[in-house]
Structure formats: structure tokens, C-alpha cells
Write a structure and sequence with these properties.
The complex is a heterodimer of chains A (235) and B (597). Chain A is α+β, with helices and mostly antiparallel strands. Chain A folds into two domains: 2-101, Beta-grasp domain (Ubiquitin-like (UB roll), Roll), CATH 3.10.20.30; 104-231, Fumarate Reductase Iron-sulfur Protein, Chain B, domain 2 (Orthogonal Bundle). Chain A has helices at 33-44, 78-81, 104-111, 134-139, 141-144, 157-161, 167-178, 186-193, 207-211, 218-231, and strands at 2-9, 19-26, 63-66, 69-72, 84-88, 95-97, 100-101. Chain A is elongated. In chain B, helix 1 packs parallel to helix 4, helix 1 packs parallel to helix 12 (416-437) and helix 14 (468-482) runs antiparallel to helix 15. The longest helix of chain B is centred in the last third of the chain and has 25 residues, at 520-544. Chain B is 36% helix and 21% strand. Chain B is of the alpha/beta class. Classes of the chains: A alpha+beta (235), B alpha/beta (597). Chains A and B meet through helix 1 and helix 4 of A and helix 3, helix 4, helix 11 and helix 14 of B. The complex binds flavin-adenine dinucleotide, iron/sulfur cluster and FE2/S2 (inorganic) cluster.
């Protein structure tokens, strides 16, 4: 079938501002939007630039706005979005070129969450693993799935208003550690989250949860963080 | 002029191997990790099923069994000293990951959970053993995240989205690398005492593959151009279960949980080919079985695919027939919920890409190009070894999928790659730092970046008669059909000619993007030149090996030939000509014998 794809284009070396280009290519309804972008780049305009790697939704490279919603181009099929497609970069991060945005503020926010296991106690004397029950493990399973694609953060009105807000992805990372029974850094992280750019900026718009390609219940996770801050208890 | 940086150790690549190397090297030496992707985008994150270690958390297991299984899986081409080293380190390596915070799934007692995988056996009974430590079907994702998190904790220096394009060697010693900063197009020279390559594989030379777009063999081809040999490049693993047409992987863990392969007649066919472990035979064995079924007209509707069936009723029926039990002796039974919790991502992939629900429907699959057993030759400390005498290149190291230690020989066992990354990534990092502490910087030659600069310029100034995208597809097609699961003299000869023709035509490619910022067209073209180089080397090494062994199966030489071919291939390219030499396989405990599953 013929697919018409309208793509946001911006090359800072040439263009004063962004504009749209429309291309027509032959594709199959089971093709990914990413396949269509590759076809456009391969046959229509080699200068089109976008990030991609795994091509099956696990590396987080290709979050973009497809028909107005944040999605991974490799996990969105033509049959799901139809033959008329508009593709734009995710919002709230500076566009570097075409569909590529500057991800540094996003990763900086991630790093502010102390994103690593904090536990200074001695390891088990037998050198074996720290024990954790399947129930304790399940407690934070959701938030371990995050691939740092930024679809959530760049769909959030609070983040659009200010990229100082850590954003939902960073909060998911905080959740991943705070609810891990082996971790002892909850207090430090909750302190970070209580600052002006922390959970207070979440107004439960739900955009993040809808955008997440890993189906993480982000708003719920943020709710649990807020609860932990109010009660001082993690459970 | 380019910007110049100086680090004692440079690690190229930020997947499992590169991050582990970076972590360990940075403890003792000034280190930087350079990666063309943000570290968390590396392909290690796609690994699904597990990482092996004889932890014995459910049942008896031993490193010696793990060693033997690996040797047998390798079709006796793996070096047994290196394999023993790896399987002995496995338990501590996996426990170290847990201590770093990796969220493994747990047994009821709270220990690391393990599942069966192809070729993992109890050596006394021959029955499958639970050896693959896992976190659902996201084990690689968890390893990648955990190692990156540890790097943040330990303040490791990163150059994200910098692509290394050249290696600098002075007087036969590693001296640094040249990289392009993707965001600005600037070239940077990294002056180093030691360089570790951890750039991953090159499965994108094949049409149907589980590999990422970025698996273009950069590290291997950069070193090949500097006269470094590549080892055992004919051995490429075709994983039996890729999603039909797309090649997206369905982990062997699915069969570990009880899934079986079904042909067009509705038969479970693996017992014909591997009477003892059946669907859990080694990957090369299962892929060939599928191929044979398809060739015999037993594909689904006569087409080139079969089904993988994990519907609970099927799994439970065959588990009962096989006498499979739980660790407590009760009969093995699964429910739809088991499928959802044990392989959630696979369920998601099938729903998204196929519109198929594995709990109630069968999954259409075909073998997919998956893993490069061959690569940059190293010893067990990651030192690059260039001949049969153990000669090393001072300061040059490699680890991970781009390296060939060789622990995987002619066929890698599932879960042994992730193990390879953490074990040999660590040792390469330690060794490189130790070397750097006792070495001086070589003098950096003037204009070290000029050669790659002119190569890039040439790509912008081609005639434009050829299109890179089309050349790339032609290469993928010919490699998949003629240097694929089954090979023969005639097909490989014509494939080799075709690849050489494509190399010539590549000179007529013109990159239309003349800009500097994120010039992905330019870098894709450069990557294609690497793939064409690697495809040639793979085809030539394969054509030359006149036997069948592991992942290298020939119609015209169907038997393994230990008398003539129990040796590693070393291929180099000098003045445009390929040269093939050999080195012996290290055999310590296990003499080659027939391989039956
Ligand atoms: C779908 C899938 C499932 C798998 N499942 C399993 C499993 O369950 N168990 C198992 O043991 N193995 C599995 N494997 C194999 C295993 O995941 C890989 O072999 C392994 O992760 C490779 O790791 P690596 O560190 O060598 O490379 P990668 O993780 O791919 O990292 C390569 C790095 O090199 C960088 N790089 C490459 N070229 C350049 C350049 N020119 N300049 C700068 N940087 C560069 C990249 O940016 C990246 O950071 C699986 C593989 C796939 C594809
Ligand atoms: S929470 Fe979901 S949407 Fe947000 S970064 Fe992680 S995977 Fe992407
Ligand atoms: S390319 Fe990896 S998530 Fe889309």
C-alpha cells in the first residue's frame, strides 16, 4: 500500500526554523513506522536523521511523536496508525536535527536520582546472593522495565513548562530503588524528590502512563512515592 | 585538526563487555568509555533468557558440567583452558551482579532463580539442568542497566554518541583511536596507552536477524584494516526461533519453560533429531532440524516457517510425556499466568508484531542470524593475539561479542555470551589498566586523523551511480541465502563474488548530506563499508573450511573432520588480499567425540 508520511525537518546548519516534508512510499501494513523512515532515508532523502538501534522496542532510541502521540517508531505498525502519518520529535527537549533531540537534560535528571543500589552493609558471609523473596522482588518489578526512552517525560505538561522538573522517567528510576528490599538509600532519594523539582510538580495528568511503551503504571508509581513521602514508610 | 584527549585506557563500546571493562579499568587507571550509542541503548539490553552459572539453586550442578556442556556445544572448537576459566569464574561473576543490585528473579527461598536452556545438562543423567540465572526475559536489560548504574556510582568517564572510526598503532603498539562526535561532526583523537574494543557483533550482514541496526562490525573491520587477523569468522549462529520474517528473537527460555516446535503436519519433530533433550538441543542442531523440516515440505502450509507452541495445554501434555517434574518431584504444569510472568516481553512482541497471543495461539518462527562466534582473537585476559605462537599487540584488548577467546568455538550455548561479557570484560579491564600503569604513552603521530578524514570526504564525493540502501539489501540477501544455515561450494563462491562486486559498486556511492551535525547518512555509509568487509571475510573463511562443524554446516562436506579441521581459522587482509592461516585448538580435559543430544 502507499503510505504518505509527513515528517518534521530541521537542519540547524541550513534552516532558520523547522518545517514539514511529505513523502510517499510503498509499504506493508505490518511494517513498522521505523521501516518507513528507513525507506524514506534510503530512497527519498538521505539527509533525514533519526536515532534507532534494536528495532523491536527494547533500547529506547526512537521515541517520537507519531500522529501527535509519543511512541516508539519501531513498536508502532502502519496497521495501527493508518496510511497517513505525521512524525515529529518529542517535545520539551531541544531539537538537534530532524527527529533527534538533545537527550542530555533527560539523562542528567536520571542521574540525580542516585540510580544505583545503595547498601553499605557487609555482603552475606558465605559470599552468596542477598536473599529477597519473590514477593519483595515483585514489589518493584514494574519500574525495572524502564528503557529510558523519554516518551513519558516529554509527554508531561509540567516538563514542557520546565525541564528542571525531574520528570516521570526519573521518578520511575527512584521508585525502582526505593522499593527494592535490598536498598537503603530511600531517605536520600526521598529528600531529593521533596525538592521543588520533585514529585510536587506531578499533577497526575496521566500522559506519561499512556505514553509508556513498556506499559509501566507510572502515575501509580509516582503516587506510591508521594505516599512514602507523606507517611515516611515504604511498603 | 582534531581535538585531542588523553586517557590511560580507552574502552570502545558501552555494552555489557565495555561497561564491565570500564568499571574495572577505572579502578586503577585513568579511563574513558566511548560509545556510538547512549550506553543504555547497547544491544546487551536485548538479551532475554539468562546468564549461566552452576549455582545449583534448584538442583545439583557443577562448573565441570558447565565446562563440558560448553565444550560439547562448541563442537570441540572452543579452547578448553579458556572455557574452564570462564565456567569456574561464572558463579562469582553472577553473584557479583546480584551484589551490584541486579534484580534477578527469585526462588521461593529468595535465591537467584534459574531455568533450563539448550545444551545445559546434568552430565550424569543427560537430562536438562536449571542453570540460566534470569530476570524474566529481560536479563540483558537488567545487566546493562545495573552495570551502567555502577559506572555512574563510580564516576566512570563517558563519551556518549562518539563513534570510533580508526585505531592508531605506532611501532606495533596501541596508541589511541579517532572518533567522530555525532552531535557536532568534529573528529576527536584519543591518545591512550591501552585500547579495549568491545563493539559487539555484525549480524546486520544477514537479511533476517535478531541483531540491532548498529551491529555493523565496526571494531572487527577497523582492526582488520590495520592488519590484525580475525578468528573463526565462518562460525555464525542462526538461532532457531526468530519471529517469522522480522527475525526478532524468541528466547530459548521459552523452550526452557516447556514450549515445543511443531511442523506443518502438527508433529513435534525435535525428538527425531535429538532423542534425549529434544527441543532443548544446541541451537545449531535445532536450526538445522527446522531447515530440514521446511525442505521436506513440512513447513506451515508448505512455507518457510514452523510453529513454536507454548500454549499451556501443549506444554503440559509434552511435559507429562517427557516425565518432566518440578524440583520437589511433582509433575511439571504451567498455566497462562506462567507464560505471562516468565516471558512477558515475548508475549508483548508477539502481540505487537504478529497480532498473535502465545497463551492461546502458536507463534510462527524461522531461524534468525543471531550471534558471531568469531571475532578479534584474544586470550583469556582479553589481550589480542595475532598468531599461533601467542604473540600479542601491546596495549590492544578486545572483549564481548566482537572478540573470539575462543569459548564458543563453532557454536555458542545460550546464556554463555552474557557470561563471556562479564568475565572477559572484567579481565580485559584489569589487564589493560595493569599494562597502562607500567607503560608510557607512545608518541602520537601528526595528522593521525587525516586518513579517516579523507575516507569520509571520499564518501561525500562519489559519483552517486549507486545507492547505499540498495547495496546493503543485496548484501543481506546473498549472505542469508548463500552463506546461511546450510552452505556449499557453489553458493559460497558466487556469494563471495557478489560481495566483491558490491565492494566495487560501493565506490560509486555518494552521501548527499554535506552537513556536520548528526550526519547519520555518512556514518551509515561508513558502516556499510565495514559490513561489506566483514561479509567478504565470513564468506571466504566459510568457503575455505571443508567440513561441517557447529554453526558451519555444508551439504557438500557433511561430516566433522577432526583430522584436518580441528583448528581455528585466522584471516587477515594485506594489500587488498585475504590470507588464511590456522592455529591449534587447546584441548585439555575433553577429547573430541561424536555430538549427540
Ligand atoms: C535478541 C538477543 C537476545 C540475546 N539473549 C541472550 C541471552 O539470553 N543470553 C546470552 O548469554 N546472550 C544473549 N544474546 C547475546 C548477547 O546479548 C550479546 O552477544 C551481547 O550482549 C553482546 O555484548 P557486547 O558488550 O559485546 O556488545 P553490545 O552490548 O552490543 O555493545 C556494543 C557497544 O559498542 C558500541 N560501538 C559499536 N561500534 C562502535 C564504534 N564504532 N564506536 C563507538 N562505539 C561503538 C555500541 O554503542 C555499544 O555500546 C542475545 C542477543 C540478542 C540479539
Ligand atoms: S517509564 Fe516508560 S516511557 Fe518513561 S522512559 Fe521509561 S520506558 Fe520510556
Ligand atoms: S529502535 Fe530500539 S526502541 Fe526502537
Amino acid at each position: 500500500m502507499e503510505v504518505t508520511i509527513k515528517i518534521f525537518r530541521y537542519n540547524p546548519e541550513k534552516d532558520k526554523r523547522g518545517h514539514y516534508e511529505t513523502y510517499k512510499v510503498e509499504a506493508h501494513e505490518n511494517d513498522r513506522v521505523l521501516d518507513v523512515l528507513e525507506l524514506v532515508k534510503g530512497h527519498k532523502d538521505g539527509t533525514l536523521s533519526f536515532r534507532r538501534s534494536c528495532a523491536h522496542g527494547v533500547c529506547g532510541s526512537d521515541a517520537m511523536r507519531i500522529n501527535g502521540r509519543n511512541m516508539l517508531a519501531c513498536k508502532t505498525l502502519i496497521r495501527d496508525v493508518g496510511a497517513n502519518i505525521t512524525v515529529e520529535p518529542i517535545m520539551g527537549l531541544k531539537v538537534a536535527k530532524d527527529l533527534i533531540v538533545d537527550m542530555n537534560p533527560f539523562f542528567d535528571n536520571y542521574k540525580k536520582m542516585l540510580p544505583y543500589l545503595i547498601n553499605d552493609n557487609p555482603l552475606p558471609a558465605d559470599g552468596k546472593e542477598r536473599l529477597q523473596s519473590p514477593e519483595q522482588r515483585a514489589r518493584f518489578d514494574e519500574s525495572t522495565k524502564c528503557i529510558l526512552c523519554a516518551a513519558c517525560t516529554t509527554s508531561c505538561p509540567s516538563f514542557w513548562a520546565s525541564d528542571e522538573y525531574y520528570g516521570p522517567a526519573a521518578l520511575v528510576t527512584a521508585h525502582r530503588f526505593i522499593f527494592d528490599s535490598r536498598d537503603e538509600g530511600a531517605e536520600q532519594r526521598l529528600h531529593v524528590l521533596s525538592e521543588t523539582n520533585g514529585t510536587a510538580r506531578c499533577h497526575t495528568a496521566y500522559n506519561c502512563t499512556e505514553a509508556c511503551p513498556r506499559d509501566i503504571q507510572i502515575t501509580k508509581a509516582i503516587g506510591e512515592l508521594k505516599m512514602a513521602m507523606v507517611t515516611g514508610k515504604i511498603d | 585538526m582534531s581535538k585531542v584527549h588523553q586517557f590511560e585506557v580507552i574502552v570502545v563500546g558501552a555494552g555489557g563487555a565495555g561497561l564491565m571493562a570500564g568499571l574495572y579499568a577505572s579502578r586503577n587507571a585513568k579511563t574513558a568509555v566511548i560509545s556510538k550509542l547512549y550506553p543504555t541503548r547497547s544491544h546487551t539490553g536485548a538479551a532475554q533468557g539468562g546468564i549461566s552459572a552452576a549455582l545449583g539453586n534448584y538442583e545439583e550442578d557443577k562448573p565441570e558440567w558447565h565446562m563440558y556442556d560448553t565444550v560439547k556445544g562448541s563442537d570441540y572448537l572452543g579452547d578448553q583452558d579458556a572455557i574452564e576459566f570462564m565456567t569456574n569464574e561464572a558463579i562469582d561473576a553472577v553473584l557479583e551482579l546480584e551484589h551490584m543490585g541486579l534484580p534477578f528473579d527469585r526462588t521461593p527461598e529468595g535465591k537467584i532463580s534459574q531455568r533450563p536452556f539448550g545444551g545445559h545438562t546434568n552430565n550424569e543423567t543427560g537430562k536438562p539442568v536449571r542453570r540460566a540465572a534470569h530476570a524474566a526475559d529481560r536479563t540483558g536489560h537488567m545487566i546493562l542497566q545495573t552495570l551502567y548504574q555502577q559506572c555512574i556510582k563510580n564516576n566512570v568517564t563517558f563519551f556518549d554518541e562518539y563513534q570510533v572510526l580508526d585505531f592508531i598503532m605506532v611501532d606495533g603498539k596501541a596508541t589511541g583511536v579517532v572518533a567522530i562526535e555525532l552531535a557536532t561532526g568534529e573528529l576527536h583523537t584519543f591518545h591512550a596507552k591501552a585500547v579495549i574494543f568491545a563493539t559487539g557483533g555484525y549480524g546486520r550482514i544477514f537479511e533476517v536477524t535478531s541483531n540491532a541496526y548498529v551491529y555493523t562490525g565496526d571494531g572487527c573491520s577497523i582492526l582488520l584494516r590495520h592488519g590484525i587477523p580475525l578468528e573463526d569468522m565462518e562460525f555464525f549462529q542462526f538461532h532457531p526461533t526468530g519471529i517469522y520474517k522480522l527475525g526478532i528473537l524468541i528466547t530459548e527460555g521459552a523452550r526452557g519453560e516447556g514450549a515445543v516446535l511443531i511442523n506443518g503436519k502438527g508433529e513435534r519433530f525435535m525428538p527425531k533429531y535429538a532423542p534425549t533433550v529434544k527441543d532443548l538441543a544446541s541451537r545449531d542442531v535445532v536450526s538445522r532440524a527446522i531447515y530440514n523440516e521446511i525442505k521436506a515440505g513440512n513447513g506451515i502450509d508448505g512455507k518457510n516457517y514452523v510453529y513454536l507452541d507454548i500454549r499451556p495445554e501443549t506444554v503440559n501434555k509434552f511435559a507429562a510425556l517427557d516425565g518432566r517434574t518440578n524440583p520437589d518431584g511433582s509433575p511439571y504444569l504451567i498455566t497462562g499466568d506462567t507464560v505471562l510472568t516468565k516471558i512477558p516481553d515475548i508475549v508483548d512482541f508477539c502481540r505487537v508484531y504478529l497480532g498473535v497471543d502465545p497463551v492461546t495461539q502458536m507463534m510462527p518462527i524461522q531461524p534468525t542470524a543471531h550471534y558471531a562466534m568469531g571475532g578479534i582473537p584474544t586470550n583469556k585476559y582479553g589481550e589480542v593475539v595475532i598468531d599461533d605462537k601467542g604473540t600479542t599487540v601491546p596495549g590492544l584488548y578486545a572483549a564481548g561479542e566482537c572478540a573470539c577467546v575462543s569459548v564458543h568455538g563453532a557454536n555458542r550455548l545460550g546464556t554463555n555470551s552474557l557470561l563471556d561479557l562479564v568475565v572477559f570484560g572484567k579481565h580485559a579491564g584489569l589487564k589493560a589498566a595493569e599494562y597502562a600503569k607500567n607503560a608510557d604513552y607512545q608518541k602520537m603521530p601528526d595528522g593521525a586523523e587525516s586518513s579517516i578524514r579523507s575516507e569520509l570526504e571520499a564518501l561525500k564525493n562519489g559519483s552517486g551511480k549507486e545507492n547505499a540502501f540498495d547495496l546493503s539489501n543485496e548484501m543481506k540477501n546473498v549472505m542469508f541465502s548463500d552463506v546461511g544455515i546450510y552452505r556449499n561450494e557453489k553458493d559460497m563462491t558466487s556469494a563471495l563474488e557478489k560481495v566483491r562486486e558490491l565492494q566495487k559498486r560501493f565506490k560509486e556511492v555518494k552521501v548527499s548530506d554535506t552537513g556536520k551535525i548528526f550526519n547519520t547518512e555518512l556514518l551509515n555509509a561508513w558502516e556499510l563499508s565495514n559490513m561489506l568487509e566483514i561479509a567478504e571475510v565470513v564468506a571466504a573463511s566459510a568457503l575455505n573450511r571443508k567440513e561441517s562443524r557447529g554453526g558451519h554446516a555444508r551439504d557438500d562436506y557433511q561430516e566433522r573432520d577432526d583430522e584436518n579441521w580441528l583448528k581455528h581459522t585466522l584471516i587477515t587482509k594485506k594489500n587488498g588480499k585475504l590470507e588464511i592461516k590456522y592455529k591449534p585448538v587447546v584441548i585439555t580435559k575433553h577429547q573430541p567425540k561424536a555430538r549427540v543430544y
